[in-house]
Amino acid sequence: MKVATQIASENPHLYYEIQQGNANTAQVTAQFKKVLDELASAVEEGDEAVFTRYMGVAKRRLVTGDSEQN
After folding, report:
1. What CA–CA distance (Å, rounded) separates 39 from 13?
2. What's the mean pLDDT in 19-40?
3. 31 in Cβ contact with 69 (< 8 Å)
4. CB atoms within 10 A of CB 36
5. Using H for helix, E for strand and C for coil, what is the string for the chain?
6. Residue 61 and residue 70: Cα distance in Å, rounded?
């Protein structure tokens, strides 16, 4: 939340330029949407295993900086 708060407090025009000029933005956005949809579906369907697996992957990436997709 601290990082998100810092980013949201910065110049939105700068962040737009960064994202607009980043060749990977579309791919990252598509992956983010996919995972978010799968998390929402897991909650709606009561699939705790899928939800906790995704949360575990997210935790590992945040803690270790691991960017591999699983």
Report:
1. 30
2. 94
3. yes
4. 11
5. CHHHHHHHHCCHHHHHHHHHHCCCHHHHHHHHHHHHHHHHHHHHHCCHHHHHHHHHHHHHHHHHCCCCCC
6. 10
> With 0-12 CB in 10 A as exposed, 13-18 as middle and 19+ as buried, what is 50?
middle
31: tokens are 């992956």
pLDDT tens digits along 14-29: 999 999 999 999 999 9
CA 57, CA 15: separation in Å to the nearest integer?
A: 26
Q: Which two tokens stand for residue 12?
A: 């939105």
Residue 1 and residue 26: Cα distance in Å, rounded? 24
